[in-house]
Amino acid sequence: MKIYPINTGNFKLDGGAMFGVVPKTIWSRTNPADENNMVSWAMRCMLIEDGERLILIDTGIGDKQSEKFFSYYYLFGEDTLRGSIEKLGFGLDDITDVFLTHLHFDHVGGAVEWNHTKTILQPVFKNAIFWSNENHWKWAVEPNAREKASFLSENMMPLQESGQLKFIERKEDYQTDALPNIDVIFVDGHTESQMLPRIKYKGKTIVFVADLMPAVAHIPLPYVIGYDTRPLQTLKEKEQFLELAVDNDYILFFEHDYQNECCTLKRTEKGVRPNEIFAFDEYFGS
């Protein structure tokens, strides 16, 4: 097995929205905002080469939306999903599986594109199975008013219409038979049945923490993003996960941290906190 971080580009979101009830005077020490209170975030995905399977975890925001849509999110940087995959020597048609942690536009948008005449929306990865779960799919295609702007039908329905969409069955909070060498931790605070892949790799356990904790700065329990639909549930899930992670020496892989890719954890008098912070390839070797 070989794992590669995949950078798909960066965007900006309101700092207050990303840190909830935590005051700006505190969160701005680690995540400084610009003059419009916008903070920079990554859209970092993961590619797993495992035998004949090439598994992509999340897809970034994509490029098919309107200029008006993108004007809200201040995209920047030279990285793209296609460019990062091709830089590693792979093609889009080599992807066999796309694991979608959830269906918010910054996680699934890159899975769908216009055809060459811009008349039909189609999956970017022609040979891939797209993995979601039934609970989350229903939640996304029948969205509540709070999340409606994050669940865009053009990002989801082409996957179903293609026949390439499949569901991982949720039997309990920990699903152990998802994909080869990957199991799933289900969490419900951010959105219904978000899936966090847990991967055994080179003697370590890596968890792609998605939007349970978008960045290192979100490790302290009160740092819950304003986008979460059930913030008290997130608090409970974070506490349980962090205890599990520190007990088992997990490596956390961050999707949205603009500066930091990974960290380990330690217990302190203030609770579980980052131990070592590092780039994935520096730790495991490129």
SSE map:
Elements: E1 2-14, H1 15-19, H2 24-27, E2 38-50, E3 53-57, H3 67-71, H4 81-87, E4 97-99, H5 105-108, E5 112-114, E6 121-123, E7 129-132, H6 134-141, H7 153-161, E8 165-167, E9 174-179, E10 182-187, E11 194-201, E12 204-208, H8 231-247, E13 251-253, E14 262-268, E15 271-278, H9 280-284
Parallel strand pairs: 3-4, 4-7, 7-8, 12-13
Antiparallel strand pairs: 1-2, 2-3, 5-6, 9-10, 10-11, 11-12, 13-14, 14-15
Descriptive key words:
alpha/beta, single chain, 6-stranded mixed sheet
Q: How would you portray this structure in words?
A:
Helices cover 22% and strands 31% of the residues. By secondary structure, it is an alpha/beta fold. The protein is globular and about 55 Å long.
Strand order in the largest sheet: 9-10-11-12-13-14-15
Q: How many extended strands? A: 15
Largest β-sheet summary: 7 strands, mixed
Shape, please?
Answer: globular
**Which secondary-structure class do the elements indicate?**
alpha/beta
Low-pLDDT sequence parts: none
Average pLDDT, rounded to a whole number, is 96
Amount of helix? 10-25%
Please state roughly what percent of the residues sit in beta strands, choosing from under 5%, 5-15%, 15-25%, 25-35%, 35-45% or over 45%.
25-35%
Number of helices: 9
